[in-house]
């Protein structure tokens, strides 16, 4: 191989490693094209979250680009694996890429916290489709996203109570055992769930770090507490191990969890029997319930996905907010930031999306209730 | 602190702790055997465990064609599958142990390099194995099929004698005592102990040093592979980073018991398993690691040779 080519390839590889990003299109220098970054776990144990969400962004973009707009928009993918450490190394690369005018994501709260310093310094607007930790939009919190961070989902201040409400629904005398995974997301959600659990309902609480294998001591505590409802605030891989240990340990009560667990691979990893009946919530309404049949056909044709996954709706909405601003001719980070902060947008459900000063949707957003039925996620309604 | 759980779950926690402890025992034997002979910590052993868990899944899924959604097995098929997966995982880990010794230790030993170099090369092998597994699995967890229906023999004092718990304790005991007898009674075991006492003198006695060291790594790998099999059978899942926590716990167990001797690893592993269960139950699961390492530091401060270090000195490998 020619030495110059070898050197160029080496430089390109090194740049990819350093910045941790890969462009969907190679036409970086094409005129009248702007770029939106998409940051979520695209590989790793939580990859399904990002891959599901990516379909929403791709579909919104395909609808937009099909109208032959004056300004074309393309995606730049940033894989943070849903991990704060990885996110902290990915964010500076995205922030320094001046062709990127906005970011869809980050998907996870911990990854968002870790990414914020780089993005704040670069003034890059963020619209998250699934980072629900309350402190991200709390002006008093030491790490908040003001002024660049916005989100199109209800935060855990809404999801926490909704999760408790749904978990205890239909149970005459609920005794709730609350477990979190000590992550930024899990501990945050548990904090707001706990506020809704009255002392009469409280059976106990524990915090089990992410990646724990052995849950037998927690199972022993759940059994000793006499709990008939277990609420787990954490992500799907650990929820699968925990529910399996609970069922193997003889626990027959309700198992409930939040949006971190609402993944198609949760019932697969937990096993159909253990996961069956799990009550899950997410600040999400299934995409297929909101779009037209023609749109669903186009979505399936584009993505190959027949049943859209979790947070496709919010990702579609987040992407469309950027696209609405770009349609108005905003093609700089500052222009986009101003447009998002002051504008009013239309969601796929026909709802109006307008952000408050600190980045939450004014009026909040719906929290959906789901159940695992026959080994699959099934939408129940609003929690 | 929650002491109320002790009254109703004391024996349950003990039983689960002992079962978990046996997994630690079998892994810590991999550390302690190598340390006994080379006076070096085999840091790659944690990734040997991880590879063993994947070997178990390969044996169960790719070779014996079980699928993660299938029903548990029964009768001859169950016994055959379990034994095959155990042997396969152990052999893979044993051979991997030999390979680790060849790559990370032998050449450096022949060159007479600083002992630190071997430790670093073992860490390098560990990183290579872990990263290879991460890339191959895309960092995603891998689910093992449920082979064993989790039925119970019954409860005594609140402790549920589930089939997998009993299996680990029985099989782990058999493997440990077989190894103990092998090291103490057999000709090869005598050779291992001789090398452990003095490399120079054992060479003068006609012992093939490289062969004995390879054998030690092989045996350490076998027990580590058995631990990986039990881990996968009980928890039915694995991931590229599973070796880190298991390896650290087993290494801690070996140090607690007195690294370098087999019985120390045994007592250390069981002690650690039970300690983890009690710490989680009383203080909360997030305090488990804090408690374990606090106890480790205290033990080393008071008795640097480990809790059982001197009492079982004569069993040093």
From TrEMBL, chain A:
InterPro entries (UniProt xref): Leu-bd, Peripla_BP_I
UniProt KW Protease keyword: no
SUPFAM superfamilies listed in its UniProt record: Periplasmic binding protein-like I
Leucine-binding protein domain residues: 34-365
Pfam families per record: Peripla_BP_6
Residues spanning the signal sequence: none
Keywords annotated in UniProt: Signal
Keyword RNA-binding attributed: no
Record's protein name: Unannotated protein
UniProt source species: freshwater metagenome
Lineage of the organism: unclassified sequences, metagenomes, ecological metagenomes
TrEMBL record, chain B:
CDD domains in alphabetical order: TM_PBP1_LivH_like (cd06582)
GO biological process terms, semicolon-separated: D-alanine transmembrane transport; L-alanine transport; L-isoleucine import across plasma membrane
GO cellular component: a single term: plasma membrane
GO MF assignments: L-isoleucine transmembrane transporter activity; L-leucine transmembrane transporter activity; L-phenylalanine transmembrane transporter activity; L-valine transmembrane transporter activity
Species assigned in the record: freshwater metagenome
Membrane topology type: Multi-pass membrane protein
Family: Belongs to the binding-protein-dependent transport system permease family. LivHM subfamily.
Record field: transmembrane: 20-41, 48-67, 79-104, 116-136, 156-179, 212-234, 240-259, 266-284, 290-312
Subcellular location: Cell membrane
Alphabetically ordered keywords of this record: Amino-acid transport, Cell inner membrane, Cell membrane, Membrane, Transmembrane, Transmembrane helix, Transport
Name this polypeptide is given: Unannotated protein
């Amino acid at each position: 191989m020619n030495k110059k080519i070898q050197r160029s390839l080496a430089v390109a590889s090194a740049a990819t490693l350093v910045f941790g990003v890969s462009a969907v299109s190679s036409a970086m220098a094409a005129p009248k094209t702007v770029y939106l970054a998409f940051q979520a776990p695209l590989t790793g144990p939580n990859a399904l979250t990002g891959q599901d969400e990516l379909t929403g962004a791709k579909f919104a973009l395909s609808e937009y680009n099909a109208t032959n707009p004056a300004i074309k928009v393309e995606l730049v993918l940033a894989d943070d694996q849903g991990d704060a450490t990885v996110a902290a190394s990915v964010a500076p690369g995205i922030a320094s890429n001046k062709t990127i005018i906005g970011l869809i994501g980050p998907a996870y709260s911990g990854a968002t916290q870790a990414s914020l310093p780089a993005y704040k310094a670069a003034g890059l607007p963020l619209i998250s489709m699934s980072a629900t930790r309350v402190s991200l939009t709390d002006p008093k919190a030491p790490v908040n996203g003001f002024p660049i961070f916005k989100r199109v989902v209800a935060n855990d201040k809404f999801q926490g109570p909704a999760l408790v409400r749904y978990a205890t629904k239909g149970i005459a005398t609920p005794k709730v055992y609350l477990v979190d995974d000590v992550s930024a997301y899990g501990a945050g959600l548990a904090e707001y769930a706990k506020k809704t659990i009255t002392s009469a309902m409280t059976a106990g609480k524990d915090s089990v770090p992410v990646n724990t294998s052995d849950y037998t001591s927690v199972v022993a505590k759940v059994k000793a507490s006499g709990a008939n409802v277990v609420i787990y605030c954490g992500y799907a891989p650990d929820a699968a191990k925990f529910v399996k240990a609970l069922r193997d340990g003889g626990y027959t009560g309700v198992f409930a969890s939040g949006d971190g667990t609402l993944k198609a691979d949760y019932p697969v990893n937990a096993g159909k029997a253990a996961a069956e009946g799990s009550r899950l919530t997410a600040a999400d309404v299934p995409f297929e319930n909101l779009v037209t049949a023609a749109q669903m056909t186009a979505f399936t044709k584009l993505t190959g996905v027949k049943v859209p996954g979790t947070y496709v709706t919010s990702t579609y909405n987040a992407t469309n907010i950027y696209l609405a601003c770009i349609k108005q001719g905003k093609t700089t980070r500052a222009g986009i930031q101003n447009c998002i902060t002051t504008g009013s947008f239309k969601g796929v459900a026909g709802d109006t999306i307008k952000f408050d000063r600190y980045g939450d949707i004014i009026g909040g957003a719906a929290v959906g209730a789901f159940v695992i039925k026959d080994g699959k996620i099934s939408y129940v309604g609003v929690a | 602190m929650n002491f109320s759980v002790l009254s109703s779950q004391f024996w349950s926690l003990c039983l689960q702790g002992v079962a978990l402890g046996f997994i630690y025992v079998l892994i810590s034997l991999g550390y302690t055997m190598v340390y006994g002979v080379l006076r070096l910590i085999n840091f790659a052993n944690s990734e040997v465990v991880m590879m063993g868990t994947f070997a178990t899944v390969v044996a169960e899924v790719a070779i014996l064609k079980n699928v993660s959604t299938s029903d548990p097995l029964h009768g001859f098929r169950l016994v055959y599958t379990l034994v095959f997966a155990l042997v396969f995982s152990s052999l893979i880990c044993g051979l991997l142990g030999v390979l680790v010794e060849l790559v990370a230790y032998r050449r450096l030993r022949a060159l007479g390099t600083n002992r630190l170099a071997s430790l670093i090369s073992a860490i390098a092998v560990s990183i290579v194995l872990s990263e290879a597994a991460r890339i191959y699995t895309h960092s995603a967890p891998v689910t093992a099929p449920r082979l064993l229906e989790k039925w119970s023999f019954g409860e005594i004092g609140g402790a549920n004698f589930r089939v997998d718990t009993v299996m680990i304790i029985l099989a782990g005991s058999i493997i440990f005592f077989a190894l103990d007898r092998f090291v103490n009674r057999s000709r090869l075991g005598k050779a291992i102990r001789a090398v452990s006492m003095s490399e120079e003198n054992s060479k003068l006695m006609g012992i093939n040093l490289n062969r004995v060291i390879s054998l030690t790594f092989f045996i350490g790998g076998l027990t580590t592979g058995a631990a990986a099999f039990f881990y996968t059978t009980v928890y039915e899942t694995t991931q590229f980073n599973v070796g880190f926590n298991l390896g650290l716990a087993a290494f801690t167990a070996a140090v607690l018991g007195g690294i370098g001797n087999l019985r120390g690893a045994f007592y250390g592993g069981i002690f650690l398993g039970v300690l983890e269960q009690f710490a989680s139950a009383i203080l909360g699961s997030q305090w488990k690691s804090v408690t374990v390492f606090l106890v480790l530091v205290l033990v080393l401060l008071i008795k640097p040779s480990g809790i059982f270090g001197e009492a079982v000195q004569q069993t040093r490998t």
